Amino acid sequence: MSIQKIEATQIGNLSSATYSTKAQSFNESIYKDFWTVTERDTDGAAGGEAEYTPDWSRWHGYYRQVSIFAAHIDKKTSFTIGKGYEAKPAIKKILDKIIGWGKDDFNSILENQDKTAKICGDSFAEIIGGKGVKLKNLKPLNPGSMKIVVEGSGMLKGYKQVLDVDGIRTEVPFKKEDIFHLVWNRTANEIHGIPEAERMESTMKRIMEVQNDQRVMFHRYIVPVTMIPVKTSDTTEIGAFSAKYTQAYTKVEPMMVPDEVVNVKDIKHISIPQFSVHDPMPYLRFNTEKFAEDIGVPDFTGEKITEASAKIIYLAFQQTIERNQRWLEAQVRIQLGIEIDLEFPASIAPELVEDEKKDGQLNKTPNLDPTKKE
After folding, report:
1. pLDDT tens for residues 92-107?
2. Which tens digits make up the pLDDT trace of 234-280?
3. DSSP designation for 134
4. Which of 162, 145, 171, 141 is closest to 54 using CA atoms?
5. Is the pTM of this model over 0.85?
6. Quick one: which of 144, 181, 145 has its CA closest to 57?
7. Would you say 102 and 64 are in contact if contact means Cβ atoms under 8 Å apart?
8. Residue 123, beta-bridge partner list
9. Rounded alpha-carbon distances, angstroms, from residue 4 to 7, 9, 11, 66
10. DSSP 3-state assignment of 285?
11. 8 A C-beta contact, residue 52 and residue 120
């Protein structure tokens, strides 16, 4: 029988299969279960006047509820604003009078605007007085109440603020020169910025899910689900027993019951599902590391970070922040008619130069000629 089976064996010609029909080709018409990107066009003007309102409440919700996202946004903004702005005395005199909503200063307003733009893509502040020496105040606005209005040609036309006063919806128009508008990470002909949270949403959901699952899992170690078989099907009796058991459990008091009602041996405490993964930390660690990598804020204190690698990572991060500072300085100059310089908190470059000098001395060829002086 085995000989017959061997003789019946046939040789297939795998090389005859074309690459386009293999799984490696990711041919979506054949293999439907592979991940594919969702095609997406820009929200640019399409021949007629266009409007856009940032989805502030959605993205702001992530900032308020996902601590790792808030921490990374705050860190980026903190580095961007750095030690504050530097300007000529005449400019400082103007900016010192800026109070925002009444308790702000110009540094805190810049920090607010930069942070808000990163969260939802756009931030807005009303320019009061005018540009340059005419500037009286800069009042932050709610992005969710602002409409960006663009002409059919794609050029910015102005803004509308949507207000709800006593249930009556009204729109207050603003000229484009009356609004300080930061547009974060705009691409192509987009008429708005791109939220940092948008590309991080999937990772944030995974992090929150595993943290919440972990919270329930550890809580069930202390407060397990208890299954108590009772020797009755009468709902009234079951309800009375449940009330007494709950009271005893809450107050951590002993509870005496007739043996014919409940057999203690039959009581089951369920803490976590059998065969479930007990240690979610590797998965959580993977997602938090991926989050830091994707959002562009490195971890300088990780287990795999050495002093040397931390310096290089910091230097690379410094380039990103300085680019952000140049962009913010340019927007202040263009929209407010004000020249400022944002100072980076602490540059690592001088220390790297010093390290290079030390390394140069260590790697220097020793002088073996006693007649030669260095």
Report:
1. 999 999 999 999 999 9
2. 889 888 888 888 888 787 777 777 777 777 677 776 666 655 556 77
3. G
4. 145
5. no
6. 144
7. no
8. 182
9. 5, 9, 15, 65
10. helix
11. no
